[in-house]
Amino acid sequence: MALEDAKTHVDLAFTRDDLKGCAAENTFGGATSFLRRKYTKDLRGVDLAVTGVPFDQAVTNRPGTRFGPRAIREASTLQPYDPPYGWGFDPLGDFAIADYGDLAFDYANVAGTPAAIEGHIAEILAADVGTVALGGDHFITLPILKAYAAKHGPLGVIQFDAHSDLWPDDDMDRVDHGTFMYKAVKLGLVDPARSLQIGIRTECEDYQGVQYLDARTCHEKGAAWVAHRAREIVGDGATYVTFDIDGLDPAFAPGTGTPVWGGLASWQAAAILRDMAGINMVGGDVVEVSPPYDASGITAVAGAHVAFELCCLYLWNKRNK
User: Fold this and answer.
1) 246 is in an annotated binding site
2) What is the pLDDT of residues 82-92, one digit of tens each?
3) Which domains does the chain have, with CATH numbers?
4) Is 171 annotated as a binding residue?
5) Is 214 known as a binding-site position?
6) pTM attached to this predicted model
């Protein structure tokens, strides 16, 4: 990039006029908005809002995912130079993606956080804009699902995870990342018959009607088969995609709170996400990226790629309407 051109590509997170277009900025400088998108609370003309939810006080093991949104944004600066490989369209050039910033909440008021998350997402949905959320621990998905279910009714859910997060817990006020899916089913936010968990490799006594493909099945059947099964299960109904980064094997994502061996490889996750194109995805998230345990930064890189793939999944339907 010539010096003259470089002067016109400075801190696009603030100076960008057009919400569309790839970004040719130095990856090592500038404001680290997600994919160098514009930081804005103005949702006029926006197709999709990416927002951080830096909450990690619901973890059962290692904390640190409050730093996840920041790390994912930084890792994402490697990506916006060209359209993403394999999708056949240019989501950054064809659609307006905005970085809506992070949820502001009182870290000392844990009991009040779920309502804050729900309200934050509902505010974006009220503008008829979808969301991809950057966590944070997996609890954040429960209040997000509440906001989405209020708009769309019971949702199909595709969950990439090492854990089912279906531990029984009928105290709906408890804040625990291991019970979010159990509560989502019990509260009627999720349609279990239209929901699928991918990559499971820990025990669960009762899946509450949610279907699952454990990691070994994914390895043996292959990515294309898994994606086809996911499309079959969710059908044409409104679907939310939540990706716990520990769905990946620790070799590909060591920076997470509860790593479990035997998980998906990054190439498998990429192939499954891309082959799910066409599902009626209304929103999604990537959670449990924990930078304190990510010495090389590869978990944040994986999280950034997952988040971009979720953007592509969401925008695929807009492109093909």
Assistant:
1) yes
2) 899 899 999 99
3) 3-319 (3.40.800.10)
4) no
5) no
6) 0.95
